[in-house]
Amino acid sequence: LLNKEQIKSIAKYKYAEEWNSEEKRMAKAEEFYRLNNSVVGIYCLCKIASSAAMWKQYGGQLEGFCVGTNFQECFQYLHDNVIGGMNVVYLPEDTPRLKYISPWENNQQEQIKLYVELLRRKYIKWQHEVEYRLVKVMFEELQTPVSNVDNRRKLAIPKPCIKEVIFGERMLAQHKDEVMAVCASQGLNVEFKIARFEDQDIVIEPY
């Protein structure tokens, strides 16, 4: 592994060589997104359903809902579709920012592997998300590009993986009914729960 000073040294060299103008930076950004958006699909989850920070930031202050999953029962599906998982690692804010990276390997597969490794990392200000990511990488797309790549990048979660729906206590009754109707129409065997604030904590109970 490279230490912080080695990363800074390499980044400084690469910047002087390839990044020292706005045109070069824009070209590298386009190259970065074009390559990785064509072959990588990401599905982001939170490992703690009772996270007060997540309910505040993403759950509309308990006006929204949360879908609970259990991937242990779908291991074969993940294996067959070459979908891997990773815990996100949270780094100090002074960690050098590697953005729109121009990889040090010319081989495209090595570039993508480096990109996937970078997906494991976020700054520590996001640690309240306690994030877990499913990642699908389609290396075959490099040889035989297809027009429907966006659909192929999507990670469809099998129905048996969906185990619960947690309503925020401030969610409108009409919206709860709509969610339950969708679950019934899809044949989902889910448990419905309710999340509410108790002091500064989130308590989850049967609905």
CA radius of gyration: 21 Å
H/E element order: HHEHEHEEHEEHEHEE
Strand order of the largest sheet: 2-7-8-9
Helix tally equals 7
How would a textbook summarize the main sheet? 4 strands, mixed
The secondary structure category is alpha/beta
The gross shape turns out to be globular
Uncertain spans, ≥5 residues at pLDDT below 50?
A: none
- Overall pLDDT confidence: 83
Distance between the termini: 49 Å
β-strand amount? 15-25%
Number of separate strands? 9
Helix content: 25-40%
Describe it.
The strands form three sheets. The chain has a four-stranded mixed β-sheet, with no helix packed on it. Helix content is 35%, strand content 25%. The protein has helices at 4-18, 22-37, 52-57, 75-80, 108-118, 149-153, 173-185; strands spanning 40-46, 65-69, 83-87, 89-91, 121-123, 131-137, 162-168, 191-198, 201-206. Helix 7 links the parallel strand 7 and strand 8.
Give keywords.
207 residues; alpha/beta; four-stranded mixed β-sheet; three-stranded antiparallel β-sheet
Give the SSE layout:
Blueprint: H1 4-18, H2 22-37, E1 40-46, H3 52-57, E2 65-69, H4 75-80, E3 83-87, E4 89-91, H5 108-118, E5 121-123, E6 131-137, H6 149-153, E7 162-168, H7 173-185, E8 191-198, E9 201-206
Parallel strand pairs: 4-5, 7-8
Antiparallel strand pairs: 1-6, 2-7, 3-6, 8-9
